[in-house]
Amino acid sequence: MFNIIRNINNVMKNKIFTFNLIFLVLLLICSFFVFPINNANSFYLKPVKAITLREAYILAVRRNGSIKAAKESYYQSTLLKWSAIGMVLPDISLKYTDQRMHVNSAPASAQLAPLMNNIFLFFFPNYQYSFTLNEPAINVGAIPAYMSAVNSSKAAKMSANNVSANTLYEVAVDYYTVLNDLNLIKADGKTLYEAKSHLELTKAKLKAGLAIITDLLQAKSQFYAAKQELISAKNMLKSSKAKLASLMGVAGNFKVIKPKNPVLRKISLGKYIILAYKNNPDLKSLRFAQKSADYETGFYELQYIPKINFLASYNALSNEHFIPQGSTNYWTAGATLTMPLFQGASRIISIEKARSEANMSMYKTMQAKRDLKALVASEFYNVRSLKSEVGTLRYEEKFASKNYMLVEEEFKAGVATSVDVVTALAELIRARHNLLSAKLNYYESVLDLKRLTGSFKRKLINLTVDKLN
């Protein structure tokens, strides 16, 4: 009897399993036709792309709007060179005129006069055309105009490089900030685990009569504080990733891969200052702007030098009716001399304005060199100070961790109180946060010194996607 019942149950189970399998297959087929994979309404998990620091640089160069705007500004400056070149290029023009003469004609008969009054009859078609060539033979002012445009273009290029280098610096800082937030989440997660372990231990001791309710309340308070720290760290990570994504011009989810920590060459402060003077794009931009203003001054000073243009034209007319004996096709050639004798106040104002711009660029360059020297020195000593601070805080974090483990063991043995454990855990949290904060400050200072000395400008050259370099 029991065997029969067992066989019936097995058959029913097999039928139910087969039915469920068929239903699942039909459901998958229907979902494939109703919600295809390419449909925007389909639900699927997007893969998370891992981005290296170099890939982050490339994305920023390709997509960052500030870099694109700076490149457009550079492109506009290159057009000034063609404007200066146009001062010595020939000017060729074609002029064509087509005319008809007309007279008023009376109607043929008096009966048609009301209908055909004031009819225009055209006679003697006349047209003419001429080709004209105007070639500047001597225009000395084109030389300083061209040199001013060249230096203006170089200044715009260095300014665009400075924007790009600063953007790459921000990308690097935000990239290491994201990594720091990830490490902070790991540290706070470890702290939360330790606070949870202590809370469970306190509950067990309270049940055994070895602790009081105050110990439990303190342990709970520390647990919720650690939990809040972890939530805050996760929110900071989201904020940092959003800022980094904005710089790179991406919208999807991504994760970062830890690169090598930024390091500096072991050279003296004087050599760093020389590198900054030589490679800093902002300083080079001011120098080229000063040269551009100097050449612009020369352009206005040469306005009273005579200009000579060669003129030639070919003319054709069709008025044989009016000039039956004259030639209707002829050439003309000659030269024109243009020499301004007095231009009012416009020339003097232009010269003084250009000289003022040159002086302004010179003063900006002088002050920029002083500021750059001060910034390099400040970051140089800041890097050394932060490096020493990181070493000290690393030792402090290790000591706080050992102290917490010791106090926790003493609490288990009944020698220490819950207040001692909470205090030791709070010191450990502070030491971990201080160490991570000091590391991030150290990396930012190193990156800033690299930016000042032109390291990110050289990165732009290495990134072949940046056609400006």
Chain-wise SSE layout:
Layout: H1 2-34, E1 49-51, H2 53-63, H3 65-85, E2 91-105, E3 119-138, H4 142-207, H5 213-248, E4 254-256, H6 269-279, H7 281-301, E5 307-317, E6 329-338, H8 346-413, H9 418-452, H10 455-462
Parallel strand pairs: 1-4
Antiparallel strand pairs: 2-3, 3-5, 5-6
Helix pairs in contact: 2-4, 3-4, 4-5, 4-7, 4-9, 4-10, 5-9, 6-8, 7-8, 8-9
End-to-end C-alpha gap: 90 Å
Order of helices and strands: HEHHEEHHEHHEEHHH
* Biggest sheet overview: 4 strands, antiparallel
Kindly provide the radius of gyration, computed on alpha-carbon positions and rounded to a whole number of angstroms.
42 Å
* Number of helical segments with 4 or more residues: 10
Number of domains: 2
| Low-confidence sequence ranges | 1-6, 31-45
Oligomer: single chain
Q: Provide the β-strand percentage band.
A: 5-15%
What CATH architecture of the largest domain would you give? Up-down Bundle
- General shape: elongated
